[in-house]
Amino acid sequence: MSMSLVAAEVLIALAFTYINGFHDTANSIATVVATKVLTPGQAVLLAATTNLIGALWGSAVAVTIASGLIDAGVIEVGPQLLICALLGATVWNLITWWWGLPSSSSHALVGSLVGAAVAASGDSFDAVIWSQGGAHWWLGKGVIPKVVVPMVVSPLLGFVIGLLLMGALYALLAWFSSRKGLLHRFGRTPFVNSFFGKAQIVSASAMGLAHGMNDAQKSMGIIALALVGATTAGQFDHLPAWLGFLSIHGSVRGGFSIPVWVKVLCALTMAAGTAGGGWRIIKTLGHKMVKLHPINGFAAETSSAAVILTASAFGLPVSTTHNVSASIMGVGAAKRFNAIRWSVVERMVWAWILTLPITALLAYALVRLARLAM
Question: Distance between CA 82 and CA 15 in Å, rounded?
């Protein structure tokens, strides 16, 4: 592995992180902007700060991406595989961003890793860890328990929690409105908007924290994987002492820790991406799908943050996009089902369904082309 390839891997991973920023972080702040609780600039600053805190808080998702999906005993996880996987995911992210579709960067990366691994191994599906863990498969490694099952379950949970939480808030407001005095005042619309406008800053912070714990860690895992490979191959043996921080000792199979500087770098890059181009996705989620008020934004952010924080604790690389979208749908459905613009939802669902297979095919084709060019 040459130093130029290592540098290319890291730079492409950072480019993916930047694109993830304006593609996915926008989802985490869409509701707080759409309800006019914060301006886009204020929301970006909040997202950047909470993303950084979340990214530094644990590394379970990064470890899953780095060592829980591809079997290093079957195939060497080299620079060609990682670069092609990153490029496949990046291309799909740019396409869906241009169309304003909130598809999943998480699933784009996983699909690309799978496709690249199959191509690099000579079309062997054994290169992918599909499920590993015996009777307790949900606690083990693999694409099925760590990605596919959460891909279906987490949005459903987001929808149900959003629906129930919003329904409970409506019932609570109705009860307050039926009382006199101070309690009656709490049920009035101006007071409700003011109260939940402040509460939404808390829920938006939780959403940013959740996003940092999950999405920012995916590119950390890729960068750390590249540096572990370079360290093992002896590429850093003759570097000056002041560049010693680049060495990460460990192995893909045996495990390794994610350095703090990698976490900070990925979190800051993602925050820059958020500032760079998130408005297209914010517009789809915050304005086109369902009309939002502060109370709706609070319920949607609280629901999705709860799901993502739980998934992050178990090292599950779930989709912020899917969960925020599903929570907004649940919140809208609590009022009435026709409050949701289902034509927008249909376009989003198609993007969700197609992400894994299309990115897998893209990365597969890129690996094949790279090998033909060698």
Answer: 13
